[in-house]
Amino acid sequence: MTPIELIRYFYDLPRNNAAERGELLNMLTDDIHYVGVGKESAQGREAIERLFSKYEGSGQSDVTFDIKNIAADGNTVLIDMVDTFTINGTSIDVVFSNVFKVRGDKICYWQEHYDLTNYEAAFGKKIPVTEKG
Predict the structure, then answer these.
(1) Which of 5, 31, 76, 97 is geometrically suited to a Cys-Cys bond with 113, CB 3.0 to 4.6 A?
(2) d(CA 43, CA 72)
(3) CA distances, 124 to each of 60, 72, 90, 117 (Å)
(4) How many Cα atoms occupy the beta-carbon half-sphere of 49 within 13 Å?
(5) Strand (E) or helix (H) holding 16
(6) Please, are residues 7 and 77 in contact by the beta-carbon 8 Å criterion?
(7) What digits encode the pLDDT tens for the residues 93-127?
(8) Average of per-residue pLDDT values in the chain
(9) Closest among 119, 106, 111 to 41, alpha carbons compared
(10) pLDDT-based confidence at 128, cuts 50/70/90?
(11) Are strands 106-114 and 90-103 parallel, antiparallel or unpaired?
(12) DSSP reduced 3-state for 48
């Protein structure tokens, strides 16, 4: 699978609850480094699962991804997309520009750029990346 195919597949997988995320988490290296711009970083697959689990019970019931542009330079993938989140019964579109690095057939680096203020406003509260918040 090419790096672009891997990232496209990553966004095809469901992720709304822990039962759905098994395959998605297996696509990550054990030492994955996540950077949410404007937030603290998360290191490791377990930290990513803790990040995903923080959205459960916060009103988010669905998310879809509309990839607008995707390009790769070797094992680095750049992606621009519009994510549509359903939060507390209301849909919100958020523009994301992400950077991924792939090692072998797994994702080892994931950096997200998006409008954090509008996204968190939809939840009515800040959702921290790690246990620090």
Answers:
(1) 97
(2) 23
(3) 11, 36, 12, 10
(4) 17
(5) none
(6) yes
(7) 889 999 999 999 999 999 998 877 777 777 676 66
(8) 86
(9) 111
(10) low
(11) antiparallel
(12) helix
Q: Are 60 and 87 in contact (CB under 8 A)?
A: yes
Contact 97, 80 (CB under 8 A): yes
Q: What percent of the chain has pLDDT over 90?
A: 49
Distance (Å, whole) CA 98 – CA 114:
9
pLDDT tops 70 at residue 23? yes
What does the pLDDT look like over 1-18, one tens digit per residue? 999 999 999 999 988 778
What distance in Å separates the CA atoms of residue 2 and residue 127, rounded to the nearest whole number?
Answer: 33
pTM for the predicted model, two decimal places: 0.86
Residue type (1 letter), 115: D
Burial of residue 2 (number of CB atoms within 10 Å: 0-12, 13-18, 19+): exposed
List residues bridging with 97 in a β-sheet. 80, 113
Instruction: Tell me if 84 sits within 8 A of 92, measured CB to CB.
Output: yes
> Would you give the distance in Å from CA 121 to the centre of its chain?
18
